[in-house]
Amino acid sequence: MPFMRSIGGGPSGGVAPCSATPHADDAAHLKSCGRPGDRPNGLAAAPCDAILGNTLFGRWWMRGFLSVGVLGVLAGAVLGAVAAVGVAARADFDYYSSTFRASGSDMAALGVGYGPEFTGADSSVVAPAAYLHTSLGDGRFVELVGTMLTANFLADPQWQIGPALNFRQGRKSADDAVVERLHEVDDSWEVGLSIGWQLQDPNNARNRLRLGVDLLQDVSGGHKGLVADFTALYRQEVVARVDLGVLAGVTVATGDYMNDALGVTAADAAASGLAAYKPGGGFRDIRIAPLAVLHLSENWQLGATVGWARLIGNAADSPIVRDRGSENQIFASVSLGYAW
Questions:
Q1: What's residue 28's pLDDT?
Q2: Looking at the domain covering 55-339, what would its CATH class be?
Q3: Average pLDDT, stretch 277-297?
Q4: Cα 157-163-166 angle, rounded to 5 deg
Q5: Who wins on pLDDT, 20 or 315?
Q6: Are 255 and 280 in contact (CB under 8 A)?
Q7: Is residue 240 pLDDT above 90, yes or no?
Q8: DSSP state of 171
Q9: What average pLDDT does range 54-65 have in this prediction?
Q10: Domain with CATH 2.40.160.40 in the chain
Q11: In sequence order, which residues have a C-beta less than 8 Å from that of residue 336 and are 6 or more positions away?
Q12: How many CB atoms lie within 10 A of CB 240?
């Protein structure tokens, strides 16, 4: 079965199309289309030299230029949208923005998400969704998932490791009149480490599995805690234009984070009537989200996901959740992506 499938037809000019099976000894084909895995979106691509230049320096320069430019635009758009919606967008933005994660494609995507007003809320809001993946060569890349920026500096086909930077919005107010009387939860900037392992089908890179963990420590004096997010994502081509998959995850956090986000102080209890509560560290939630990707053309993709998260342990026992919110958190998103 050909490694690359063409929806829009192959490139012209006498170069073999990328839908043809590449051979290791076919220098012309490898120069044009790359080795298996270089174009993992499963669609035909224009010759690499026509896009990135004829030299290694040219390819790295172009990739770096595109990375900085697209990343700046997307990061500005996401943080601007977060500021614009203010208190209405306090959910974890990576929930809305993970549809295209681990697709393997160089891609920029924007969309809209719908989910809980804050962790534990039973009210929902609209929030932005954004994704960027841009290759730096040899398996290295920069990736933006919602408000979390990560990089992989390891030149390995399976293992990924690099720094992570995340913006986690707090809780300044709430639609619920009782929760509104509780202490404010400050915004937090978090830094840490992103580790991943992925496996892809050698005959079709649209079929892939990724396991990962993002370890994020607050460094801005917000919640002052550590949040660890473990994820598993699987995607598979089901027909020429459609991929289906599922994202599962579990979040673990220290007591500092849990107490800030879900605790009720003595002053909170007096003001709100809720019972005082100081949660310890542990599991925050488990979640699962089926996803679908429609390949509209060689470059354009439409992605959608609908997910369910369940607060567990000390998080579920919080009066904010038990008395005023919900253990069940529903989220969804639709995003339009451009792959190159």
A1: 40
A2: mainly beta
A3: 97
A4: 125
A5: 315
A6: yes
A7: yes
A8: B
A9: 49
A10: 55-339
A11: 109, 110, 111, 300, 301, 302, 303
A12: 11
